[in-house]
Design goal:
Blueprint (H helix, E strand, L loop, with lengths): L7 E5 L6 H5 L5 E5 L9 H6 L10 E4 L8 H6 L6 E4 L5 H9 L4 E5 L2 H5 L1 H6 L3 E6 L1 H8 L5 H18 L5 E2 L8 H14 L3 E2 L7 H8 L3 H11 L6 E3 L2 E3 L1 H15 L11
Parallel strand pairs: 1-2, 2-3, 3-4, 4-5, 5-6, 7-8
Antiparallel strand pairs: 9-10
Length: 268
């Protein structure tokens, strides 16, 4: 289920020799990339080499954006993917065409127009999840690819997802491949905002991302004490506990168990 994915790994669609290795890397999903990782002259060859049967994990296909010469052919090749990742998601008509093709969608929001339409995008029946294309978004706005300038966009994606009743969004990539501290900080920041996963571009990012989004033992101990406190107002660890706090405790337990989103949320 793409709604439960925390650490999907991008693989260039031009490298079928890496598909199975990506599935064995510890990632909980594989994203075969027909877009940024593939040069224009290699698109047709990459598309011809696609396969989705190399793993039991969800295999997501990042297609080329609507309006490019490759979009229609990418859609035709997407049968068998768990979902398509639509870059530059901002147009509801495009989402309608993907829905008509019977495709589940992860909407990659990476433009100003996309953020402005995020709530409508999240509410579209084809959309299972939002993801943040932070690098492209920063380029579109002309802002720095740093936490503070991107805070409002990340928060909007979390809010849009909750309003639509879909799983919380995937955060964008950490481009620094040799900076574990940066990856840990980015992951912790995304989790604190309410995101529940992060796009990975190298296998060494997978373990830290999975660990960063998993509840810590101390959090689970707290959650169990909260849920054992009964109903109504109670005191746990010197703090007042009531139903909103219990909701948070239940969410932590569900995250640890890999449970599906709550019944009020749209699922696949």
């Amino acid at each position: 289920m793409v709604t439960l994915v925390r650490a999907p790994l991008f693989v260039p669609a031009t490298r079928p020799d890496r598909f199975a290795r990506a599935a064995e890397s510890g990632a909980d999903a594989v994203i075969l990339d027909l877009e940024d990782a593939v040069a224009p002259g290699d698109k047709d060859r990459a598309r011809a080499q696609l396969r989705f049967d190399f793993t039991a994990l969800p295999v997501i296909l990042r297609i080329n954006a609507a309006g490019t010469p490759w979009h229609a052919a990418d859609l035709a090749a997407a049968s068998g993917a768990a979902a398509v990742m639509l870059p530059k998601a901002e147009d509801l008509a495009v989402l309608g065409s993907l829905a008509a093709a019977g495709l589940a969608v992860i909407a990659l929001v990476e433009t100003a127009r996309g953020i402005a339409a995020a709530r409508e995008i999240a509410a579209h029946p084809a959309v299972q999840r939002l993801a943040f294309g932070s690098v492209d978004y920063a380029a579109d706005l002309g802002c720095a690819h740093q936490p503070e300038p991107l805070l409002a966009a990340r928060s909007e994606l979390v809010l849009a997802s909750r309003l639509a009743g879909i799983a919380a969004p995937l955060d964008g990539v950490t481009t620094a491949l040799d900076d574990p501290a940066a990856l840990a900080a980015d992951t912790a920041r995304a989790r604190a905002l309410g995101m529940t996963g992060k796009l990975c571009i190298h296998p060494r990012q997978i373990g830290p991302v999975l660990a960063g989004f998993a509840p810590a033992p101390s959090e689970l101990d707290w959650a169990r004490r909260v849920l054992a406190s009964g109903d109504g107002a109670a005191r746990v660890d010197g703090a007042m506990v009531d139903e909103p706090v219990r909701l948070r405790a239940r969410a932590l337990i569900a995250a640890a168990e890999g449970a599906a989103p709550d019944p009020e949320r749209k699922t696949e």
